[in-house]
């Protein structure tokens, strides 16, 4: 496909998303109908779509409309590319722009320029103060690719050498001693022998730092209560060098975890009904995902005040339930990939006011300015 044809395909996918289709589904449907597209085409189209999803409001403002065509025009203007090289009307390219389309569009302002929903801009300013703008700006750009070195099978230097031999260049990242930032060959990672044999896992650096912050001790009984795909379960098992139990309200989300654990040489047991007492329970709760909107930008546009309120209730409910699983002297670790106070510090304050006999021994925010996604972790101890 020509570069112009890829933009035309992106415009078609964006129209489906505008009509309410999830981005992944719209991309898959397009790929099924377009067998002529190769893997490089599909990757380029996906990049266009996600770049625009991150900048959904500003591209619409600059392009003068919410159609895929207008958003592509907005994105080209935003990145200083000449629309005349894309709207060429030949082959599979988009039709040339009309005079009306050329005259449309305005420079985005305020929340539009920061690509935030209006209702959340005030919350950002209130919660993040002088970091609000920089955080919103960081969420408008692609995230770096990070790997977690699996300490059960290798060390960071050896993993780096193995990846380099397969054309993947990496650099250690200061936020976690298990983290490598991929500087070249990111698309090749999942095909490498190093990945297939469990030397490394794809995992954001701040997500790794959350696990580093947990009070781990040899032989402790440990539960990951919201295990999902198991990213943190595996990191925990590697740090602990021992077994970890994994639970999720939706067990289907853990369906790949046994295979992933096998590949990583980690001991993970899936539990339907956890029975305490545990020495450590990690709750990586469902949240707005506002710290990782650059990886999952649709979440930014789908979040509503009602949905956020429902999420904070779920989070408080999980904390209250899980408290009963932690033994005396044990710890409850609460984590989110959110930058919002109502899902972070306010949840901890609420828990402490409902549960006398618990103290908060650690509370850390990882900001996007530290390189990874925005994360929060608190450690609560039962005294
Ligand atoms: C943020 S995700 C977990 C991500 C995972 N820890 C990781 O690192 O890959 C939150 C998980 O919580 C699960 N969940 C939602 N409500 C829950 C509940 N009431 N109890 C337990 N898990 C719940 C969801 O199914 C989802 O898999």
From TrEMBL:
Coiled coil: none
One GO BP annotation of this record: methylation
InterPro entries referenced in this protein's UniProt entry, alphabetically: MeTrfase_RsmB-F_NOP2_cat, MeTrfase_RsmB-F_NOP2_dom, RCMT, RsmB-like_ferredoxin, SAM-dependent_MTases_sf
Keywords assigned: Methyltransferase, RNA-binding, S-adenosyl-L-methionine, Transferase
Catalytic site: 337 (nucleophile)
Limits of the SAM-dependent MTase RsmB/NOP-type domain: 135-383
Gene Ontology MF annotations: methyltransferase activity
Gene3D superfamilies from the UniProt entry: Vaccinia Virus protein VP39
Pfam short name (any one): Methyltr_RsmB-F
Family listed: Belongs to the class I-like SAM-binding methyltransferase superfamily. RsmB/NOP family.
Protein name: SAM-dependent methyltransferase
Organism annotation: Marivita lacus
């Amino acid at each position: 496909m020509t570069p112009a044809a890829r933009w035309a395909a992106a415009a078609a996918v964006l129209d489906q998303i505008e009509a309410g289709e999830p981005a992944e589904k719209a991309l898959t449907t397009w790929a099924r109908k377009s067998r002529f597209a190769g893997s490089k085409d599909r990757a380029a189209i996906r990049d266009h779509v996600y770049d625009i999803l991150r900048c959904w409001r500003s591209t619409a403002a600059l392009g003068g409309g919410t159609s895929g065509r207008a958003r592509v025009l907005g994105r080209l203007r935003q990145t200083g590319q000449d629309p005349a090289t894309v709207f060429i009307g030949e082959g599979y390219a988009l039709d040339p722009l009309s005079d009306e389309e050329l005259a449309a569009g305005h420079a985005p302002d305020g929340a539009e320029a920061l690509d935030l929903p209006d209702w959340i801009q005030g919350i950002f300013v209130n919660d993040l103060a002088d970091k609000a703008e920089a955080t919103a700006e960081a969420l408008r750009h692609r995230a770096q690719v990070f790997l977690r070195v699996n300490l059960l099978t290798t060390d960071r230097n050896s993993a780096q050498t193995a990846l380099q031999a397969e054309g993947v260049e990496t650099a250690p990242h200061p936020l976690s001693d298990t983290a490598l930032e991929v500087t070249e060959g990111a698309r090749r990672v999942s095909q490498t022998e190093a990945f297939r044999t469990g030397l490394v896992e794809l995992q954001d650096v701040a997500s790794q730092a959350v696990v580093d912050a947990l009070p781990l001790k040899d032989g402790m009984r440990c539960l990951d209560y919201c295990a999902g795909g198991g990213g943190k379960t595996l990191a925990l098992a590697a740090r602990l060098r021992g077994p970890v139990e994994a639970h999720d309200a939706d067990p289907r989300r853990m369906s790949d975890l046994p295979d992933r654990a096998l590949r990583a040489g980690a001991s993970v047991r899936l539990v339907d009904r956890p029975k305490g007492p545990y020495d450590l329970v990690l709750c990586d709760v469902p949240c707005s995902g506002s710290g990782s909107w650059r990886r999952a930008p649709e979440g930014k546009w789908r979040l509503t005040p009602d949905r956020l309120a429902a999420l904070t209730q779920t989070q408080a409910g999980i904390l209250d339930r899980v408290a009963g699983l932690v033994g005396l002297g044990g710890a409850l670790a609460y984590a989110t990939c959110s930058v919002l106070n109502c899902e972070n510090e306010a949840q901890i304050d609420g828990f402490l006011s409902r549960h006398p006999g618990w103290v908060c021994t650690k509370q850390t925010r990882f900001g996007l300015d530290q390189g990874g996604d925005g994360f929060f972790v608190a450690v609560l101890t039962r005294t």
